[in-house]
Every structure is written in C-alpha cells, then in structure tokens.
Design brief:
The complex is a heterodimer of chains A (about 300) and B (about 425).
Chain A (H helix, E strand, L loop, with lengths): L1 H8 L9 H32 L2 E2 L7 E2 L3 H8 L4 H31 L5 H9 L6 H12 L5 H5 L16 H26 L3 H9 L4 H12 L1 H16 L3 H7 L8 H9 L6 H32 L1
Antiparallel strand pairs in A: 1-2
Chain B lengths: L2 H24 L9 E6 L4 H17 L4 E6 L2 H13 L5 E5 L2 H8 L7 H4 L7 H6 L9 E6 L2 E6 H7 L7 H13 L3 E4 L7 H14 L1 H8 L8 H13 L12 H9 L3 E7 L1 H6 L8 E4 L12 E3 L2 E6 L9 H14 L2 H10 L4 E2 L11 H11 L3 E3 L2 H4 L2 H17 L4 H16 L3
Parallel strand pairs in B: 1-2, 1-3, 6-7, 9-12
Antiparallel strand pairs in B: 3-10, 4-10, 4-11, 5-7, 5-8
Helix pairs in contact in B: 2-15, 9-10, 9-11, 18-19
The chains are: A mainly alpha (about 300), B alpha/beta (about 425).
Chain lengths: ~300, ~425
C-alpha cells in the first residue's frame, strides 16, 4: 500500500502523502468545496451584485448603484412592516413559545398523569409542514366559516381573525407557536432524560427547593440543548414563509422579508434587482445571528 | 470500498453535475418535420384540459397530416415562468392573455407578428382586434374565449323582494340600503387573494373617467394623485358600508357562497366565479346586470372581459422552418373559427366564445346574456392586472387596494404611495 510505504520511507514530517493521495484528497475535498461555491456562494454573490442593478430577467442588466436600497427603505410600504414582523416572530418564538415548550417538557418529565398522552398530542403538530399548519389555521380562524367564531358564537359582528391587519399576525404566530412548542418540548425532554439523577438528589440533600434545583442545577446542564433550541428558534423565525404564504400570500398585515423576496423575483413581476436587495437585507440580518452564534461557540470551546 | 472506486464515484458525480448543461446545449433538432406543431398549454385543470384536447384532435382530423403536440404546465407555474419560458426554448404556439400583458412581450420582441393571419379572421369585433394588437398596431394574439365581469345576483331573491335592477350608482346605493334594511349583506365582497377587488376598482374608474383614462392610467401615463383617481376611491368609500366587512380575510369562493346562500344580495365578480359556487340545479337562478352608470358621459360603455388566446413564440426553433411556421399559422387560423370554439365550449361551458360565428344555440340563458353584454360593449377592458405592468400590479396595487379596504379614510396617503412607487417602476426600463 503506497500510503503506508510512503510514510515509512519518507523523512518524518514531510511527504506523508504520495502524489496519488494528494489527487484523491484534492478531488474529495475539492468537489464539495466547488459544489459549495457553485450552489451556495455563487448565488449569494450573484444576489449581492444583482441588488445593485435593475434587471427584469429579459433585457440588459443595468447598473443602478444603491437605488434599489434607497427605494427599499424609503419607497416600499411593505418593507418596514416585514422587517418588524420578522423580529416579532423571533421575539415571540424565543420569549413565549420556547419557554413554554421548556415548561411543558419539565412538567411531562416530572411525570404528570397521562404524560404519554400529552407528549404525543403536543408533538403531533411537529410532523406537519408549516404550510399545512397555515391551511389548518384558515379552517379555525376564517371569519365566516371558521371554527373559532362558530365555537364562541360570534355571529353578529364576527371577528376577522385573519383579515384584520392588527390581529392576523398574532393569530399566525399562535399557529406557528403551536408547532414550535412541540418541537422545543421534545428536544428538552430528550435533554432532561439525560440529566444525571444524582445531581438532583445532591441538590435535594443540600436543601434546595424545586425551583432552585431546576434553575441552578438542571438548567445549566442543559446547555447543549439550549444552544440547539436557540439556533432552531432563530432559523425558524428568519425563514418563516410557508405559513403566511398559505394563508394570504403574506399580504395585508402578514408581510415577511422572505415573502417580499419571492413576490419581487418569482413570477411575472421579475424585479430581480429589487428583490435581490431585499434578499441581501435578509442575508445581513441572518449573518448577524450566525456570526454571533459562531463567536459564542468558538469562545465557549476555548473556555472549556 | 477502495480508494479507486471512491475516485471513480467522485468523477461520476462531477459528470452528473455538468451533464445536464451539456445536454441542453445540444438539444432540439433544426426545424422539426414541418407538420407537427408544439403547443405550450397552461390549461392544467381537468375540464379545460380535456376541452382543449378535443379541439386539437378535431384540428388534426380535418388537416392533412398536421398535428399538435401539447405540453401542459400547471397554470400558476406557467404564469410565473413566462419570462424565462419565452426567452429560453418555448413551444411554437402557447396560451396567454390579451391586453398589456401580451403587449409587454410583443415590445420585447418575443412574439410573432400574425397580422397576415388576421386578414383572414372573421367574426371578431374591433374591440377584440384592439386587445389582440401590440403598441405598434400589429396583431400578435388569436383570441379564443373570454368571460365578462358584472354584478351578479339571484333572480329569485330579486323577484321575491321586489328589487329592481339599478341603472345608476344612486339606484345601486338605494338598492343596497334597502337590502341592508332587509337584513342582507348588500354586496358580497372579498379580496383575500388580492385580485377580486380590482374588478370593482376598474368598473368605478371606467364608469367615472372612461375607458381611455383607464388605459392610460394603467400604462403609467396618468398620475395616481390626480383628482380623477381620488374620485374613484371616494365613490368606492361610499359603497364600502354596504359591502361585507372583513373582505381581506375572505376568498372569492366564500363571497360567492354567501350569494348562493342568500346571505348577500349582489357581488361584483367574473362569470365563472359565482358559476362555480352554485350547485347545478341552482345555476338557472344566477343572473347579472352590468355595473351601474356613474357619469352619463361614459354610461355603461366599457365591459371588463378578460380574453385568453394563442400566440406564436418568436424564439421557438421550429418556427425557423418555413413549413412549421405555416403549420403553426394554419393551426391558429383554424382556432379562430367559430367551429373550433364550439368544440371547446361543449366541454367547458364556463366561458364564452369570442367569435360571432360560434354557435350559441347550446348556451345557457346567462351565457347568452353574457354574449349580448360584451358584443354591445363599446370597449373591452381586460383586468387591472392584465392591463398594466405585472410588477406594478402585483407588488404595488394588490397591497394598496387591500390597505384601502382595511383603512379607507387615508386616500391621500394611499395615492401618494402608489404614485411614488409607480414612478420608480415605470422608470425602470
């Protein structure tokens, strides 16, 4: 085998690999890198470049400088609501749905009665795609034919849960959280199962209350799960798209950055330059979170 | 697994990535056999799909050896890809819409001029010809069918309560008031999908300011801050108290259903919309009247009636072959006859033939009335999203109209918003 003989005959530290090994390594490493460049970085850079042009997908590509961005920030009524909604989504999932999922996980882990039943019921929505959750939300919240208005008997002046722009984002957040909570719960359940019982016992012997045990002892040991849940929450809120698209194409109070990108680029509209500018904004926001996360993680590695 | 086989696998993988590109580079023979015409169809629903198949079969039967090869694509996908489709490898003939939506592509040089065909066409009105022509005055489209928009209602409800069909806006409002007293929602109203309310805007605009103004407004030549546009929104605001509240949360299916269930008295929609929500045995009870007159100067001249038809794609390789081009032109020439439309409409009765030569004896009462309505029209408009640039209609007008519906009082802010965005979009070419 050339690999072994090469290592034996060569001087220590140099020429560990034969030419053939290098070729193999080059191909095996190079291909994924090329694919990554072609499929991920290529389009990303293309979007950034296109965001400084005006192009309708047919004619010539014309350089317009920062006009798309100026337009976006000053002259596109849907932009700021969309950015706000994305942040609201993040805050709602992060501050309401995720802690709620944790609470449920703790309750089920302590072994309330029928915990198996709760566990499977709460997890059920997770197997649905968000688009399907959107369709279900319409069955529940529709003004004229929805289940909610029928149940609360609101027929005289029914509340327009999905059509009222002040209201519908909250209803959709509820629907999205319905799915997110189950997801978070199952992750935490797995994490809680892995917590060493002797830690809890030790805490109990030291006279810690139940709350103290959880916050001082159990929760810190869940750090790896916390990281995963945090990442999932951020990803879910930034890529939120299908549920609002299923409900009303992300209009009239349900605007999201991802929807604006689609509206402008896909379809007959073909404002590719302008749509790219929105995509770049979304990319910048995402990069903010990704970089923060990476820095934290790398720092954590060093401290460990 | 040995390293060698891994390497081979990697090389194969690389091949798989580049192969499709190579394949597309060499696909498509030059010109075809001259007798087969390929046709890009957006008729993906079963009823129209079958109806078109019948029509093409009939064409093949009467021609000597010519036939049509249909490539059907899902309706929405076809629409969303039309840009790339027409620039890439389009079929010889394809289905599309009349009006600005067609002119846009004609101007980009993506359509075949078929003016010579039009010299042989008979039974088409001037309004139809106008809608089939590009800005250069040449014809690009062969129209096939259409469906008019109007105010739909139930015949039996009107006779039961003694309601009279209103001619003018004042009578319309008076009728709506009466319906409200009778515990009905006077006007079923919906805009969840973003387009249904555009029909109401178009009608109020054309009745107030006339068809020519509609056309130039849609072409970006008039300012949306103009008093005439504000008048449209003001009139609309006068009607809103009689419209079902919560329109932005309601689909057209739900609105049409409330008409069918006698919860609402009237609704402004296109013929197939309420038609599809009425069960078979109640179809005969569906009736309509033209949108009421607002200004005597424009009366009820214009009718909104979107037209669908066939076009030849300039970039099609096969059309470079003279024989295939002749076959394609022969196909649309045949499709332009009344007989060809009869074959289609036999299987899909939700539309109306455009040709005066089509046999209307099998039409239902409402279809006959629809024919009368459109043939009596002085002008035919297409629809807001077919009469203007697609980017303007979808990214500006849909949100703007929804905003107007949910907060109708800030017309100034609204028209300023529209005008500012219109300027940037229409300036982008």
């Amino acid at each position: 085998m050339p690999f072994i003989s090469g290592r034996r005959t060569g001087r220590r530290g140099t020429r560990r690999y034969t030419r053939r090994d290098l070729v193999v390594l080059g191909v095996l490493l190079g291909l994924p890198v090329l694919l990554d460049l072609a499929i991920v970085w290529g389009p990303t850079l293309a979007s950034v470049v296109l965001s400084f042009t005006s192009w309708d997908g047919i004619g010539d590509i014309e350089w317009v400088g920062t006009r798309n961005y100026v337009n976006l920030f000053t002259n596109y009524p849907q932009f700021w609501p969309a950015a706000r909604h994305n942040l609201l989504w993040l805050a709602f999932l992060g501050l309401v749905a995720t802690p709620f999922g944790l609470l449920l996980a703790v309750l089920i882990d302590r072994g309330v009665r029928f915990s198996r039943f709760y566990q499977s019921t709460l997890y059920m929505p997770v197997v649905l795609s968000l688009a399907v959750v959107g369709f279900i939300a319409q069955l529940v919240f529709s003004r004229d034919q929805g289940a909610l208005n029928a149940v609360i008997g609101d027929t005289e002046t029914p509340t327009d849960w999905l059509g009222d722009p002040d209201l519908n984002i909250w209803m959709i957040l509820l629907a999205a959280a319905w799915r997110h909570t189950g997801y978070v719960m199952i992750l935490y359940l797995a994490g809680l199962k892995a917590v060493d019982q002797s830690l809890k016992e030790a805490a109990a012997i030291d006279g810690a209350s139940e709350a103290q045990t959880f916050f001082r002892v159990v929760f810190p040991t869940l750090r790896p799960v916390n990281v995963i849940v945090g990442v999932i929450t951020v990803i879910e809120s930034l890529r939120a798209f299908d549920i609002v698209y299923a409900v009303n194409h992300g209009r009239n109070g349900l605007e999201l950055l991802s929807v604006l990108v689609t509206d402008n680029i896909i379809g007959e509209a073909s404002r590719i330059g302008f749509g790219s500018a929105i995509a770049v904004v979304l990319l910048t926001v995402s990069l903010g979170f990704v970089v923060t996360y990476l820095v934290q993680e790398l720092r954590g590695e060093k401290d460990r | 697994m040995s390293r060698r086989s891994l390497l081979r696998g990697a090389a194969l993988g690389a091949g798989a990535v580049t192969l499709p590109a190579l394949l597309t580079a060499c696909g498509g023979g030059p010109g075809g056999d001259g007798k087969t015409v390929t046709l890009g169809s957006n008729a993906s629903d079963p009823v129209p799909k079958k109806a078109f198949a019948d029509a093409f079969k009939a064409y093949a039967a009467q021609s000597d050896g010519r036939k049509v090869k249909v490539n059907t694509v899902d309706h929405n996908t076809f629409q969303e890809n039309i840009n790339r489709y027409l620039q890439g490898k389009p079929d010889d003939v394809f289905m599309w819409f009349a009006g600005y939506r067609m002119q846009f592509f004609a101007k980009k040089g993506l359509l075949y001029d078929i003016s010579d065909n039009w010299q042989h066409y008979a039974g088409f009105s001037d309004a139809l010809k106008d809608q089939s022509s590009g800005e250069d005055g040449k014809q690009y489209l062969t129209p096939y069918y259409y469906y008019p928009w109007a105010v739909f209602h139930r015949k039996s409800l009107f006779t039961e309560r003694g309601y009279q069909v209103p001619k003018t806006l004042d009578e319309y409002v008076a009728l709506a008031k009466q319906m409200k007293k009778d515990k009905l929602d006077p006007i079923a109203f919906c805009d969840k999908d973003g387009w249904p309310a555009m029909g109401t805007f178009d009608y109020i605009n054309m009745r107030t300011n006339g068809y020519e103004f509609h056309k130039s407004l849609m072409a970006g030549e008039e300012a949306w801050t103009d008093k005439r546009v504000r008048d449209v929104f003001d009139t609309w605001r006068r009607l809103l108290p009689y419209c079902q509240p919560g329109a932005n949360g309601r689909t057209w299916q739900e609105a049409a259903t409330s008409l069918q269930k006698r919860e609402a008295g009237m609704t402004v929609l296109g013929l197939p919309h309420p038609g599809a929500q009425f069960p078979k045995d109640e179809q005969g009870d569906l009736d309509f009247f033209p949108f009421p007159e607002i200004s005597p100067e424009h009366g009820q001249d214009a009718v909104e009636a979107p037209i669908d038809g066939f076009l030849l794609a300039k970039k099609s390789k096969n059309l470079k072959n003279k024989k295939t081009l002749e076959s394609a032109k022969d196909l649309v020439r045949w499709l332009a006859t009344g007989k060809a439309e009869d074959i289609y409409l036999k299987s899909d009765p939700n539309n109306i033939a455009v040709s005066e030569e089509a046999d209307t004896s099998g039409y239902s009462a409402i279809q006959k009335k629809a024919v009368e309505l459109v043939s009596g029209a002085k002008q035919i408009s297409q629809f807001l999203d077919r009469d203007t640039r697609p980017d303007f209609a979808s990214t500006v007008m849909i949100p703007a109209i929804q905003k107007f519906i949910s907060s109708p009082n800030d017309v100034d802010g609204l028209v300023n918003d529209i005008e500012r965005q219109k300027k940037t979009i229409f300036a982008s070419d």
